[in-house]
TrEMBL record:
<feature type="domain" description="DDE Tnp4">
    <location>
        <begin position="134"/>
        <end position="261"/>
    </location>
</feature>
<keyword id="KW-0539">Nucleus</keyword>
<dbReference type="InterPro" id="IPR027806">
    <property type="entry name" value="HARBI1_dom"/>
</dbReference>
<dbReference type="Pfam" id="PF26138">
    <property type="entry name" value="DUF8040"/>
</dbReference>
<dbReference type="InterPro" id="IPR045249">
    <property type="entry name" value="HARBI1-like"/>
</dbReference>
<feature type="domain" description="DUF8040">
    <location>
        <begin position="27"/>
        <end position="109"/>
    </location>
</feature>
<dbReference type="GO" id="GO:0016787">
    <property type="term" value="F:hydrolase activity"/>
</dbReference>
<keyword id="KW-0540">Nuclease</keyword>
<comment type="similarity">
    <text>Belongs to the HARBI1 family.</text>
</comment>
<dbReference type="Pfam" id="PF13359">
    <property type="entry name" value="DDE_Tnp_4"/>
</dbReference>
<dbReference type="GO" id="GO:0004518">
    <property type="term" value="F:nuclease activity"/>
</dbReference>
<protein>
    <submittedName>
        <fullName>Retrotransposon protein</fullName>
    </submittedName>
</protein>
<dbReference type="GO" id="GO:0005634">
    <property type="term" value="C:nucleus"/>
</dbReference>
<dbReference type="GO" id="GO:0046872">
    <property type="term" value="F:metal ion binding"/>
</dbReference>
<dbReference type="InterPro" id="IPR058353">
    <property type="entry name" value="DUF8040"/>
</dbReference>
<keyword id="KW-0479">Metal-binding</keyword>
<keyword id="KW-0378">Hydrolase</keyword>
Length: 315
């Protein structure tokens, strides 16, 4: 005699009603719930779906419409949850969740030109043609066992080394992802500069932010003044990475998903940057890029010029 008891089967009509109710609650009920679920308000979510449809060519399938598949995708990025959690939240099979996540991922990649902000030319007193602040950060990734040695950082974590540049407003103007965690920062920077559509730095315009730090009082020499004027610029890129990781949990811990799926950061720039999701989690940003004598001399001359101008204005 077979004593195994089968779980009761939920009729498809009931599953459909449960799914619709959960979907309405997550996306349409309020901006608060929408932000909690997908890290953006209802208006921004609608704009993203519009871009994915009309720019990236994303379309509904026989069983899932665009809004639902985008919601599943964003929920994974926002909370770093596994497939089975999305199955439960959206009342979908694991195959359906996986297939539509990949469909949206490929569509989001097509929005790179739309979502990455281009720098707006601005004139600075001493920093003309300044592109923005540059820094790197480590993002933990899931890679095959055979590749782990190359992705291992100095702290022993498996991560990818991501280079980012943001403007004075904190909008990312350039992102280069994919380098191994063991890669030297200078090598990544050279790669960014050498690519066909890579990082474009105006010739001779290089402003190093890290070498001189910590003037608590009024500057007494060119180095201190240079540090004071650039500290805000450095804070911009650090805050940009903090807000990014605070908003998307998938970028904070070890991902459940393959390496190729981790490079989804672009979607963050649809929404205006805010500090709502800023986190106090200790970051593993990269704080040093090798210098050359030419760069150091150019920086020192710039610091002297800036300090002289400041002294004349305050004489």
């Amino acid at each position: 005699m077979n004593n195994n008891k089968r779980l009761p089967h939920t009729p498809s009509g009931t599953r459909h009603r449960i799914r619709e109710l959960a979907y309405f609650h997550m996306i349409h009920e309020s901006d608060i719930v929408c932000r909690q679920s997908m890290r953006m308000d209802r208006r921004t979510f609608t704009i993203l779906c519009h871009l994915l449809r009309n720019v990236a060519g994303l379309s509904s399938t026989e069983i899932v419409d665009v809004e639902e598949m985008v919601a599943m995708f964003l929920h994974v990025l926002a909370h770093d949850v596994k497939n089975r959690v999305i199955q439960r939240e959206f009342v979908r099979s694991g195959e359906t969740v996986s297939r539509h996540f990949n469909i949206v991922l490929l569509a989001v990649v097509q929005l790179y030109e739309e979502l990455i902000k281009r720098p707006v030319p601005r004139l600075y007193l001493n920093l003309q043609n300044c592109l923005g602040a540059l820094d790197g950060t480590y993002i933990k990734v899931n890679v095959p066992v055979g590749d782990r040695s190359t992705f291992r950082t100095r702290k022993g974590e498996i991560a990818t080394n991501v280079l980012g540049v943001c403007d004075t407003k904190g909008d990312f103007v350039y992102v280069l992802a994919g380098w191994e965690g063991s890669a030297a920062d200078s090598r990544i920077l050279r790669d960014a500069l050498s690519q066909e559509n890579g990082l474009q730095v105006p010739k001779g315009q290089r402003y190093h932010l890290q070498e001189w730090r910590g003037a608590a009082n009024a500057p007494t020499n060119p180095n201190e003044y240079f540090n004071m004027k650039h500290s805000s610029a450095r804070n911009v890129i650090e805050c940009a990475f903090d807000v990014l990781k605070g908003r998307w949990a998938i970028l904070r811990g070890k991902s459940y998903y393959p390496l190729e799926m981790t490079y989804c950061k672009d979607v963050d720039d649809v929404d205006e940057g805010d500090s709502t999701y800023a986190t106090t989690i200790a970051s593993e940003d990269i704080h040093y890029i090798e210098t050359t004598n030419e760069w150091s001399q150019w920086r020192d001359e710039l610091a002297e010029s800036m300090f002289t101008d400041w002294q004349l204005r305050n004489a």
